[in-house]
Amino acid sequence: MPRMTPADGRLVSFESKFDVQIETNAAGAELWVAKIPFNQTIHEQQFSLVQSFGANVSKKLSVETPELGHLYCFRLFAAQTGSPNGDGNLIDELNIPRLKSGMRRQYLTMCTEGAPQLAIESGGTFIRANLGSGSVVTRALFFVSDKEPNWPNGEFPVLLGATASNFLLSVASDTTDLFHEVVVVDLRADGWPDSRRLGPDMKVYFVALVWDSGGGFDFTWTTDIGMPVGASVPPPAEAVMTKRRKITLKVTELVCLDDSDDLSDGEAEFKITLDPAAPGTRDTRDVSWKPMETGSILSLDQLFDLSGPEAESVSIAVRGTEDDESSFPISDEDDTAGASAKLTFRSGPGTETFNDVLTLDSQVGGDGFHYLMHCSVAVSYA
């Protein structure tokens, strides 16, 4: 699958070049990079095209990262979709700061009694971190991954042994300050469904980093105690759980636009089916509407409740069969019509609890049979 990973699992650059591993699929890809000086905002910087890649490429690429304290933002886009402003069909992203080897500091614990100045809040589709660097102006970066980090060299954590099923996301503070709030949201394009995404009910690990203009830095992977300096035995990496998703779908009414009977009211049977993700099982409800007149409404109160893994992906469908009972039995031919929809979920801290209205239009079935089904969908995380 198309992706970009730090070669050798490194999360920061201590040299004038940084190696990334690029994987593409049949569609190809292109790598764009922006260099963000320490005291400049991210959104004002321009991206430059580094290289385009053809179909089914697997390649290690070295990219220049010479300036200490600068942040280098790597973005891998689908072929011919990248742009200087950093927009496009995003496949993967890496935020890589250039730090100075041997310049580990104690910024995160400068104003505390040994515990990092770090607070983490997890939602269903985001992770928020608040971190401070005492009296030193810094920039901040927060990594999350479903792979537990290692600290093999006493310098900075790495993700060793990460596979295509793992993910790595990061977010950098837009400006420099003494205190930072950053929010990790998975912005990778939905066009890459085989990419593992940050979502609900997921165990993830983190690395919180702050650094100064000269490349001096501090980091932690726990909120309990400060990380030791050098190759001392570190505390266990702390895990964070994202919240479980809960969905309540209510079918509220059927609206008959055309009962397909010219001389009388129609008579119809409906099957309403909800398909959840595994390990959920299909749930089908039967609804009878007799008589069914063109222009009439049938009020319903069909509830479907889902939570956890089965709420990861949900589709709903309705199929109606109108009984064509004519005075000529040999010419009877039931009329059918149906519609379906896959529910999509917004992501981010402002959309953790929301309600949507969904209308399924059967279009036109046999002999003009046509109806609407109205639903309401409530999504929350806990």
Topology:
Layout: E1 3-6, E2 17-23, E3 29-36, E4 48-53, E5 58-64, E6 71-78, E7 90-97, E8 118-122, E9 126-132, E10 139-145, E11 168-172, E12 179-185, E13 203-211, E14 217-220, E15 239-241, E16 245-258, E17 266-276, E18 283-292, E19 297-307, E20 314-322, E21 335-343, E22 354-361, E23 370-381
Antiparallel strand pairs: 1-2, 2-5, 3-4, 3-6, 6-7, 8-9, 9-12, 10-11, 10-13, 13-14, 13-15, 16-19, 16-23, 17-18, 17-20, 20-21, 22-23
Short description:
Helix content is 0%, strand content 47%. The chain has 382 residues and is mainly β.
Indicate the radius of gyration in whole angstroms: 27 Å
Provide the succession of SSEs. Answer: EEEEEEEEEEEEEEEEEEEEEEE
Question: What multimeric state do the chains show?
Answer: single chain
Distance between the termini: 32 Å
Number of domains: 2
Largest sheet: 5 strands, antiparallel
Overall pLDDT score: 92
Structural class: mainly beta
What does this structure look like?
There is one protein chain. This protein has 382 residues and is an all-beta fold. The chain folds into 2 domains: 3-241, no CATH class; 245-381, C2 domain (Immunoglobulin-like, Sandwich). It is 0% helix and 47% strand. The protein is built from no helices and 23 strands. The chain has strands at residues 3-6, 17-23, 29-36, 48-53, 58-64, 71-78, 90-97, 118-122, 126-132, 139-145, 168-172, 179-185, 203-211, 217-220, 239-241, 245-258, 266-276, 283-292, 297-307, 314-322, 335-343, 354-361, 370-381. Strands 10, 11, 13, 14 and 15 form a 5-stranded antiparallel beta sheet that branches. A 4-stranded antiparallel beta sheet has the order 4-3-6-7, with no helix packed on it. Strands 19-16-23-22 form a 4-stranded antiparallel beta sheet, with no helix packed on it. A hairpin with an 8-residue loop joins strand 22 and strand 23. The protein is elongated. The model has no long low-confidence stretch (mean pLDDT 92).
